[in-house]
Structures are given as structure tokens and as C-alpha cells.
Amino acid sequence: MTGLVLWGVAPPDQPESAGNTPSVEVPVPVNPQPEPTAPPPEPKPEPSVPRGGGGGGKKNETPKPSPVVPPGPKPEPPAPIVVTTPGGQQATCQVIPPDRPPNVTLRAGEIVFAAESGLLRLDRELKTQRILIADELMNVRSIAVEVSGTILVGTTVCGAGALVRVDPQTGRMEVVASGFKTPKAMLFEPFGTLLVADEIGGSPAWGYLWRLNLQTGEKASIYAFPPSEVATGMAVDPKTGEIFFTRRGLYRLSRDGVTRISVEGVLSPTSTTLFRGNLLVTAEGPPMMEIRTNGETVRMIEGGGAISDLVARGNDAFVGYANGRVGIIREGTAFATNVWQGMPSGQGVFVAVVPENIARR
Predict the structure, then answer these.
(1) pTM for the whole thing?
(2) So what's the architecture of 81-97+104-353 in CATH?
């Protein structure tokens, strides 16, 4: 917002009074002689005026009007967004930018989560800050943070499933990949590619696990999910590159194919994350289990309710709940503690951690 400053105008000087000058009578000579031509009178100097205004001999001056500044050009509206449906059709719509930029800079180790039709940040002191609210964030089912400091969400735009990049500083959103129906899980692999599990429904495949290169735009299907469920949680072993996903069970995807891992005490697992070198696995209800990648049970953790998503940060784990909460499982504890309580929703809260190698912005 700009301000208009009105500069003060000094009060006008008082005019010189005629009564202050005494009258002089000139005697008439008896024999008048021709008068010599007198030189023109010299102009009287203006009386000096002290700095800062005050009285003097200045004449009244009419203040000059301020110049009229024409209004600047209106900002250009954002370009329309074009997405592609799984059937190959194109849809176009307009995404309205926020009235004011969020000006949020993410820091390494912070938690970003999707809830209440927007994105929020949980800093290292577990203080919450809202980043953005938008119609395009009402149906988020997956979330990840890029090393550039931008946020990727799997959501619905123009009536189609898409991956949308959100800039937490400007609030701008752009579609980086489309052709999905319901992107339900998203995870960066150690070498930078992105895994996306998309549920489309139908037969013979209920959905697909995609590998995307966001730099080149390359997209490849690496697994077709049989009926009737798609992956809702994923983890990657950084040493072997093996992919673990939950699909009413826990599965390992390796070069040799897909094998199911039995998880004792957890019926129909729905979420998983890599935690202290092990896997943290949960279902729609308690409990939560920490297991080794070979299926061996490490311990049981009280989940605290139906869980929609999990993410690990060092020796702590953060939990997104189906009823609109975020919890933390601290190192050395076997239960989750609430750190944020929102409004209950039908889709739950989805969480991501800001990578340690995030670029400074």
C-alpha cells in the first residue's frame, strides 16, 4: 500500500500597508526650469524571509495543483491451466492466485501437511502456520516437498487428477503432471524420481504405480494394481531401492517381482513409512507396528485412532489422522501425542517432511 503525503503550505505574507509611508509635499518654484530627465528608479529588493516561513513582504501565491498520475496497468490474469484425463481428454480451467502472497520459507526438518482445504507448516518448535487455502487443495490425497522448497500435492484440478506444485512464498500453483484420476500416494526416490500411485478403478488394472522424472517429463508405469485397491502408502529402502507399499496388506516390489509381507497384529495395512531403518505400518485402527524389512516385529505402538498418513523425521514419526489431527511419536515412546487439532474431514490429513538438503531461497 502506498501513502499520499500532503506537504504543508506556509501562511501567506501580509501585504505592505500604505499607511506606513508618510506623504511629502514638493514646493512649486517661482520661475520653473526644465527638469532634468531622471534615471529610471532601481527596483526595490524583496525583503528577506527567514528560513522556515514567517512574515515578510512576499505577495500571496496560489498553490500549484498536484500533477495527476495515471493509474498503472492492471496485472495480467494467470494463464488457464490445461490438464489431461486418464482417457486422454483435455480440460481447461482458471486457478485464481491468492490476494496476498504467503511469504513462507520452509526449513529443513519441518513438517508440511494438507488439511482443511489448505496447506500448513509445523516448525521445529511444533508451532503451526497456515500457508495457503484454495479450492484446488480440497481433495489432496498425497503430498511431498521438493528440494527446491516447493510443495507437490496430488489433488483434483479442472475435474481431473493432477500433481500440482505450490510455491509457499508466492502462493502460485502450477500443474506439473496430469493424466491421473486419484493420486493416492506420492514419494521421492533417493535418486530424485517421483513415485505416484493412481487409483482409476476398473479391470484388469485397478490402478498404476508410476515413476516420473519431473525434469524431463518422462512417465513410466512400473506396476499395475489388480482389483480392488491401489497403494495408499509407500516407502523406499535407500540401500536396495526396494519399494514397499500398502494395499490392504504390505508388499515389497523388487526386481524379482512383488511379494506380500505378513504384519502381525495389523489387519489390512493402509499406511507405511521408513522409520529408523525399519518400517512403520498402520491400518485404519490401532495398533501401529514397527517391523524390519523382512517382516520381523520390533514393537507395537499405540496409534491413537484411524490414521491416513505417516512420515518419519529422524527418530520421530508424525501421524496424520482421518479425523483431522496431527500427532507425533517421539523417540523412546510407544504412543502418539497430538500436536495439532483441526476440523474433522472425510479424507484425513496427509503429511510430508521438508528434506534436509532443501535449497535456500
Answers:
(1) 0.77
(2) 6 Propeller (2.120)
